[in-house]
Amino acid sequence: MSPVLPLRDFSRPPVALITGITGQDGGYLAEWLLSRGYIVHGMARDLSRLPRERFSGFPDVNRRLVLHGCDLTVGDQVDRLLRETMPDEIYNLAAQTHIQTSFDDPAYTTDVNATGVMRILDAVIRIDPDRRMRFYQASSSEMFGDARGSVQNEETLFHPLNPYAVSKHAAFEATVNFREAYGLHASNGILFNHESPYRPASFVTRKIARAVAAWHVGKGECLSLGNLDTRRDWGHAADYVRGMWLMLQQPQPGDYVLATGENHSVRDFVEYAFREIGREVIWRGSGVDEEGIDARTGETLVAIDPKFFRPKDVRVTLGDASKARRLLGWTAQVSFAELVREMVEADIVRFETELANQGIASGE
Ligand code: NAP
Ligand code: GDP
What we know:
This protein is of the alpha/beta class and about 375 residues long. The protein has eleven helices and 15 strands.
């Protein structure tokens, strides 16, 4: 039987705590919550990374956005942060998110991504005996491993293929366990890859967008990539943070897949992105000798570098978000083509601004 959850207090602005606010999703979620009247406490280790200009449109932002330095690997800091902020909603987005880094340092990845979640959950049940706080855990489609030709939903078995996915799997189970054992309103969003102009360039989409933008401003260099044929169900981060929020507005907690329901290869992303600047890519050669050539100029735009191949890669992801559609009314709204366009355009603007600033600095 589902636990009886306490009623929410609507007589004051809701208070949210976002861990990982300096990350891609943290920024979008902060914007979403501020626009809905929340007081937002943001936590990360390196708060200087937060692009504050994103929030300049909120007139009372200095009062409603409060930042806290805190490391998820330090239990005392986590405990103190929760006691100081007493949030209605906790969005745990902080994580060591790089898959290659997780192979290099699996123990640290687990400390942040799995034990860090335990630290939050343990603090919540001690600090909030009435179970008023609601908890969102940023779980990942990486927990599924390969799609192997079928779509992945809440019923799909987990088969993590890297230490990052293993750590996220542990955190997923901890969230379910605290929900069942302590009656916590704790939900997992099993999110498929979502991107934006704020994605770090260590991810392939942003790496491609930046490289294409560089060609557009006359600074193009051959782009080195790994496996061009892996496929991802890629959505836009702005759509996905809306889904996180919807999960915590439900009377009962639950676990939900968020995905677009279509996937594309890295090769597709390259082709769409170059098309945005009027260049057609044709492919020559095979394996590590394959190259992407500009159909008009013959320039080499893309080459393969084996160092970007992974010891164990997820070849295909494809999500089925029908539960979220049915129960949350959530669907992804930004198409793949719109996502690629926005990312390339944003990097063109960044390069142009940089070049203009360099021109001003050198007095040209
Ligand atoms: P991101 O851009 O890499 O941001 C990660 C955040 O975690 C940063 O704010 C970082 O802050 C913080 N962080 C890292 N280690 C920390 C630590 N030890 N203590 C405190 N904060 C720490 O990630 P994202 O793309 O926004 O993703 C948000 C969450 O969703 C992550 O948990 C990720 O695993 C999950 N997820 C993402 C996707 C996706 O496609 N984006 C898909 C599924 C799940 P610093 O400034 O201190 O480094
Ligand atoms: P992930 O799905 O979280 O691992 O997101 P990434 O953007 O890092 O990788 C998506 C896919 O792109 C993976 O299958 C990678 O193997 C593939 N890929 C191909 N070339 C590259 C590259 O140069 N960098 C990255 N990060 N991934 C690449």
